[in-house]
Amino acid sequence: MNWAVAIAALLIAAAFDAGFGSVLSIGPLRGQLLPAVVVFALLSAPRRSALRLAMIAGLIADLLAPVVLPNAGPLQDVLVVPGPRVLGFALGALAVLQLRSLLYRQNPLSGALATAVFSILVAVSFVFLWSLRGVLYDQGTPWSPASGASEIWLRLFSALGDGLVALPALWLLGKTRPLWGFTVASRVVPGMARQGT
Amino acid sequence: MDPRNLIRFLQGRRLDGALALAALLLALLPATWLLPWTGDLARLLSAPLAPVTHAGIYLRDRVRPPRESFDPRSPEALALGQEIARYQSLYEQARLELEQSQRSLEALRAVRARIGSAGGAESQLIEASVIAGDASRPLGVLLLNAGERHGVRAGSAALVGSDLFAGVIAKDVGRFSSSLIPSARLSSIGVRLYPAEGSDPRQPVAAYPGAVLKPTGTGTFTAAVATTMPLAPGMIARLADDRYGRAALGSRVGVVLSVEPVDEAPNARKIVVQPLVDFGELASVIIVSDGAASAAEGEVR
Predict the structure, then answer these.
(1) In terms of pTM, does the model score above 0.80?
(2) Is the CB of B45 less than 8 angstroms away from the CB of A73?
(3) Could you read off the pLDDT of B75-111 as tens digits, one per residue?
(4) Quick one: closest CA in B to A127, which residue?
(5) To the nearest whole angstrom, how far is the Cα of B222 from the nearest Cα of chain A?
C-alpha cells in the first residue's frame, strides 16, 4: 500500500468533513467521508497495514475534535484526547477485516454496509471510553448534558449516514485504486493444471 | 538497539498491540496531563488542512448558499435592517450597562473605570475564519485562524453579523489559532428576555425578565424563569452576563421557542431557547478582544 497516498486521502477526507460535511446531513443523519476512506483501504490493503491506517485515521479524527471541559466560569478550556477514536477505529477495522472475506466487493451495497458496521463500532467504543473517563475523573463528556444513550442513538443515525455517503465515495475511490498500490495476491490451488482444448 | 530487531518489531503484531495499549493509556490520562500538549498537536495538524477546509466551505456555500441569499428583499433594505439590529443592540447594551451601574453604587469607582473604556479604543475586533471542527457533531469546538499574535484573548466573545453572540474563546489560545466554544456549549449564559420588536424605553430594564440559560446538549437552551411578567414564544434573549465582556452585552443569543408551566413552582415557567447562530454553517466570526494590548495591537484582520 502506498502510505503517502493513503495518509493524504485521510487528511483530505477529514478536512472535507470539517468544511463541507454539514451539507451531507439531514436532521440527525450526518454522513462523513473519513469512515468510507478507511473502509476502502480495509477492504483491499494487507491486514496489518489496514489496521494501522485505521488507527492513524482515528488519531486524525481525535485531534480535530476537541471537547469542552466543564467549568463554571466564563473561561472554559477545551481538551483534545487522542485515543477514544483510535481504539474505536481499530475495533471497527478488526470487524471489517473479519467481514471482508464474506463481502462481495463488486456490490456497492456491501461497502456501504461495511462502513455502517465500522461506524457503529467506532461509536460504541467512543461512548464507552468517554463514559469511562467521566467515571474516573468526574469530568464532562462530549455529549454532556445529554445522556450516553442519546449519543449512541445519534451516532447510530450518523453511522447510517456514513453508509450512505460511502456508496458514491467508494465508487469514486475505486477509480483511484492504481494510486493506492494495493498488491493483489492470487491463491495457487494444488492439483493438475487445466489444459485448453 | 539492533536495527533488524527494530524492523522486526515494526513489522510484527506486537506493534499493533503496543499502539492499541498506548491509545488506551492516552484515552484515560487525566486532563491535566493532556492539556499542555494535545492542543498544540491538534493545531499543528489543522494548519495544513486549512486550505482544503476552506475549499470545502467555499463549495458548501455554492451548493447551499447562506439563507440570506434567498431573502427577496433588496440589498438596501437588508442593510438597513442590519443597521437597525445593530443600533438596537447598542441601545440595549447601554441600558444594561446603566442598570448594572445603578446596582453597583458601592463599587462606583470600579464601575466608572469600566465605563471609561466602554466600547473604546482598547477593544479590538478580529475577524477569524473557521479552519477545522468536529465533523461528527454540529456543536463541536471550532478552530479559528486567529491567535495571540492577532490580539485574541481567552474568554473573548465572538460575534456573527455584528450582534449575534456565537460563543467564547477557550483558554488554550495559540500563537496563530484559537478555539471557539459555541454558545450552545457554554455552561450558563445570563440573558434578559425582550419582545421581538424591542424594549420600551419608558420601562426600566428590570421590567424584562432575566434568565440563566443552560444548554440541553441538543443545540437549544433551557431555563426556569420565575416571573409574573408575560413570556411568549418569539421573544429575543439578549446577553446580560458581564462575564463575557462588555462589548458583547445586549447581543442576541437566541429566540424563545416555547414556554411551559412548571408544576412544582407555580410562579416559574420553563422556556426553551433556540440559538440564532447556525453553528454547522459558521464560516467566520468577529472576536471582540477587550483590553487587548499586544505586539499586534491595532492589527484588524
Answers:
(1) no
(2) no
(3) 777 777 788 888 888 888 888 877 766 665 544 343 3
(4) B27
(5) 12
> From the list A25, A71, A80, which residue is nearest B39 (CB)?
A80
> Which domains occur in chain A, in start order?
3-180 (1.10.1760)
**Contact at CB, A76 and B137, closer than 8 angstroms:** no
How many angstroms separate the CA atoms of A163 and A178, rounded? 24
CA angle A171–A177–A182, rounded 5-degree value: 135
Could you state, in order of their start, the residue ranges of all structural domains in chain B? 68-185+280-289, 189-277
- What's the ipTM? 0.83
Whether the CB of B168 is below 8 Å from some CB of chain A: the reply is yes
- The reply to whether CATH 2.40.50.140 applies to domain B68-185+280-289 is no
Nearest CB partner across the interface for B45, out of A60, A72, A83: A60
CATH superfamily membership of B189-277: Rod shape-determining protein MreC, domain 2 (2.40.10.350)
